[in-house]
């Protein structure tokens, strides 16, 4: 179906300087001349063609038209109303929105100077709450880059217990950031920020290298058997075709066995079966295990477990909290049986009480992780235990 469009004959005015901004236009065909009046004389500003936007500036800041638009040839324009712009702008990234409005302010200021109306233009509009948030986000991103360069991000280890023996079989690597002014920054905040940018890849590489160094220190301190350490992967890391080889290079440089570094993939990423399947196959070909993290967090689908050969399933803490109810015990028991049938180890996350651990023991769950087992520790604290 063809989108609704408006036709303008050559020489016809689309809108005039001073008009209210009822809509913007996408030029589908033809050419448009943009002009303004400078000191009483007409001045050509631009000539626009197919695929270009027309009149969007006035719509964005809801101000009167500062230039006129006239069809140079017969034109077909698709109107874009103010509501469409407002909706998209409201859902845009705050940083992108702030940058856009900053550019718009500069444009208005330059145009005002050009037309001799600079005195009537406020070049320093009041900062809105969203603008302050966006600027703070930009500052935090810059600080995060600096912290990564200075190796100020700390990798902590949360212990994972083998329930039957009571021994610590491994750890999950968790990255933490102590900001010099803000104090501890929530991992949810800075990891989300890193994932919105290219930062997540170097941060991921930093964590993987640190994990390998930690395994070396554990080995040198006589830890036998050497525990495994699990590290989470982001979607951007998984997209990198050189990821597994880089990890192997890290391991080989330190003479570490590949089965001691376990890669974790969150459940939200497994919808792309082909991509995750290729990653698992590549990892298995070099002896590196892969775990499905956060199973049961809202994306639960048994389909991926039929086609993706995970070595371990990490059960979300929400299931463990439900162990105080018969239905919760029954559900976890079913998941334990499923993991056993799939030849997967099961790790219960968020274990906080002895009663939860005892139920998991009775159900046959192999591993427990949570504050009952231990909080995330520095490597120094791990070595002292």
TrEMBL record:
Name the Gene3D superfamilies for this protein: EAL domain (3.20.20.450), Jelly Rolls (2.60.120.10)
- A cellular component term (GO) from this record? cytoplasm
Tell me which domain of life the UniProt entry assigns to the organism this sequence originates from.
Bacteria
Occurrences of domain EAL (ranges): 137-385
Domain Cyclic nucleotide-binding intervals: 1-106
Any one Gene Ontology molecular-function term assigned to this protein's record: cyclic-guanylate-specific phosphodiesterase activity
Q: Where in the cell is it found?
A: Cytoplasm
Q: What InterPro entries does its record include?
A: cNMP-bd_CS, cNMP-bd_dom, cNMP-bd_dom_sf, Cyclic-di-GMP_PDE-like, EAL_dom, EAL_sf, RmlC-like_jellyroll
From the Swiss-Prot or TrEMBL record, give the protein name: EAL domain-containing protein (Putative c-di-GMP-specific phosphodiesterase class I)
Organism of this sequence: Dokdonella fugitiva
Lineage, uppermost ranks: Bacteria, Pseudomonadati, Pseudomonadota, Gammaproteobacteria, Lysobacterales
């Amino acid at each position: 179906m063809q989108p609704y469009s408006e036709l303008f004959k050559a020489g016809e005015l689309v809108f005039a300087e001073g008009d209210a901004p009822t809509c913007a236009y996408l030029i589908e065909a033809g050419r448009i001349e943009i002009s303004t009046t400078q000191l009483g004389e007409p001045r050509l500003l631009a000539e626009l063609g197919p695929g270009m936007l027309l009149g969007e500036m006035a719509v964005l800041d809801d101000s009167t038209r500062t230039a006129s638009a006239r069809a140079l040839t017969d034109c077909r324009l698709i109107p874009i109303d103010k509501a469409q712009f407002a909706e998209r702008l409201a859902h845009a990234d705050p940083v992108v929105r702030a940058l856009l409005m900053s550019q718009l302010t500069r444009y208005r200021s330059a145009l005002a100077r050009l037309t001799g109306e600079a005195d009537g233009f406020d070049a320093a509009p009041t900062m809105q709450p969203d603008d302050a948030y966006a600027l703070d986000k930009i500052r935090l991103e810059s600080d995060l880059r600096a912290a990564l360069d200075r190796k100020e991000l700390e990798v902590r280890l949360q212990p994972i217990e083998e329930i039957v023996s009571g021994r610590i079989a491994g750890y999950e690597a968790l990255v933490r950031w102590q900001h010099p002014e803000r104090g501890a920054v929530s991992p949810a905040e800075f990891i989300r920020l890193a994932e919105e940018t290219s930062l997540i890849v170097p941060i991921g590489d930093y964590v993987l290298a640190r994990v390998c160094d930690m395994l070396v220190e554990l080995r040198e301190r006589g830890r036998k058997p050497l525990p495994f350490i699990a590290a989470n992967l982001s979607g951007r890391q998984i997209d990198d075709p050189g990821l597994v080889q880089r990890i192997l290079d890290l391991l080989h440089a330190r003479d570490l066995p590949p089965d001691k570094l376990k890669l974790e993939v969150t459940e939200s990423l497994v919808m792309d079966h082909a991509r995750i399947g290729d990653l698992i196959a590549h990892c298995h070909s070099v002896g590196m295990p892969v775990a499905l993290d956060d199973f049961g967090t809202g994306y639960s689908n048994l389909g991926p477990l039929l086609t993706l050969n995970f070595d371990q399933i990490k059960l979300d803490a929400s299931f463990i909290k439900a162990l105080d109810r018969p239905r919760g015990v029954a559900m976890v028991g079913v998941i334990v049986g499923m993991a056993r049938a799939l030849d997967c180890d099961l790790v219960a996350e968020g274990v906080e009480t002895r009663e939860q651990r005892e139920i998991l023991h009775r159900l046959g769950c192999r591993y427990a992780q949570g504050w009952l087992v231990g909080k995330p520790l520095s490597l120094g604290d791990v070595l002292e235990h």
